[in-house]
Fold this protein.
Amino acid sequence: MGYQAEYIWIDGTAPSPLIRSKTRIVADGKKPGIWGFDGSSTNQASGDNSDCVLQPVFSCPDPLRGPKDVLVMCEVLLTDFTPHPSNTRAACAAAAERFAEQEPWFGLEQEYTFMRGGRPFGWPAEGFPAPQGPYYCGVGGDKMPGRDIVERHTLACMNAGLAIEGTNAEVMMGQWEFQVGVLPAPAIGDQLWVARWLLFRIAEDFGVFATLEPKPVFGDWNGAGCHTNFSTKAMREDGGWDAIIAGCEALGTKVEEHVQNYGVGIADRLTGAHETAHWSEFSYGTSDRGASIRIPWGTAKEQKGWLEDRRPNANMDPYLVSRLMMTTVCEAAVESLALA
């Protein structure tokens, strides 16, 4: 006897990596160990040297199979057990260890769009649905397609033990969101990737594709982002307002580096319209959804809390984004203390 372990990893497809997975039968009483795969079929190796290594980094119950089965998030290694060039988790983990004393935490708001036949799910075969307005957090069978998929996905994440915080319908018809957090890095990336895998897998059963494209429909329609909430211990403590403002200022010193690594197609989404700041500009403000960084009103009221980077795309890599935010904000904090 044994149980099924679904090994999940991120491939080397450019410019937007894909989620891959395969099943291994593990003997009862044993844990999922190191495994391998054909990297020449995932854009991670050449055919004459194709072996890549799967190193388990996070495991949780598989809510879609039997009571003993598990989902296993892996990072990809070379056969000498060094990180594969496509492995962004290793650098994220190193940054998290470097800045552990500052206790950086993350919460991610993952937007996505259901698609069928090349069009958003629920849209008419030709033309467009009614303009945006009634869809965000809306109710009504004629305008909220995909709710049955969302309900299954939410329950699956809960049964898997993931730190899912909530779900809601988004501004464009056929677009939804779920939130994961609050977690440190790289755990926040591990859990978001598993939650994404569950979303894609469950959507299969409905004949629907869940896309992370940042601008699935051009025109007067909202794009899809992955707003990234971030705080450090100093920001969360009494008197944390100064640390929050310092974090915003630090992010403003590396606008180009962050935008270039916040997801493919970001210029299509960050146009300055549809609740975004223009990709080439930087701003921050309280309750301002048209700013690069929004400071929640509760944070401003309490003078402590967190900030929200609204720039990352729906297709962003959470390992990469969390590493950049830690490095930029936490490094600035270290330098500030050194100068004090």
About this structure: The radius of gyration is 20 Å.
